[in-house]
Amino acid sequence: MEQKIRVGAVSYLNTKPLVYGFEKGLMQQDIELQFDYPANVAAKLLNNEIDIGLIPVAVLPKLQEHYVVSDFCIGASGPVASVCLFSDVPLNEIKQILVDYQSRTSAALLKILLKEYWKINPELVDTGNGYQQNIKGTTAGLIIGDRALLQRQHSNYIFDLAEAWQQMTGLPFVFAAWIANKKLPQNFIQSFNETTGIGLKHIEEIVSTIEFNEYDMHQYYTQNIDYRLDEKKLEAVKLFLSKLI
User: Are residues 222 and 177 part of one domain?
Assistant: First the structure.
């Protein structure tokens, strides 16, 4: 290709299987890969600073056009473990929730669950770096990604958002998908799709390279994260987008 396709991926542990192929050198002549947290990857795709992003699905309505370019995603068909509401007290005693600044989808999902499933109305507070230390008393916190896996060691109550969504809807959940903001050549999309799936065949190798003792990474990659963007997950995305508030 004359010009490399700019690809934005998420710098969390859950992305490692999806970028395994790229990090092994596949498509290095075709793409320019960069990492950031989900909200920033989304902003870059919206601003046309990248051509493809592993973006929070809540951003889809804001794109003028979008194309799913991979059969793989960050999804869950059970508890996801790394997108949770953490609290010292039960749900009905929570007065305030500190909302993770790193993902729009998780924040939007939280609002839906508060209104439709848990039926509570605490104050929601925007946050910045290091906000986890303020989760105490009746102040709870939504935390995503690697920091959520760490927080599991410290909170009395853990409410898994993917699990709650499934209990409410009977469907899995999709947190992020590989989305292009423009039409791309079909042969590129085919190669991209194949490359994003290769890591699923190398989970043991990926786990062996990670130094993270706070959570079982093999369990995380094989039981918590469900990487396949199947029909049920596409149905879930459609339902989620219809509920955005």
Answer: yes
By residue range, what is the domain housing residue 111? 83-169
pTM for this prediction: 0.93
Q: What DSSP element (H or E) covers 67? A: strand 67-76
> Which residue type sits at 61?
P
124-147: pLDDT as tens digits: 998 878 898 899 999 999 999 999
Of 143, 169, 195, the residue at which a domain comes to its end is 169
Decide if 216 contacts 38 (C-beta within 8 A).
Answer: no
Residue-wise pLDDT tens digits, 176-219: 999 999 999 999 999 999 999 999 999 999 999 999 999 999 99
Query: Is 104 a domain residue?
Result: yes
What whole-number distance in Å separates Cα of residue 31 and Cα of residue 25?
10
- Among 95, 59, 74, 91, residue whose Cα is nearest residue 144: 74
**φ/ψ of residue 226, rounded to 5:** -115, 110
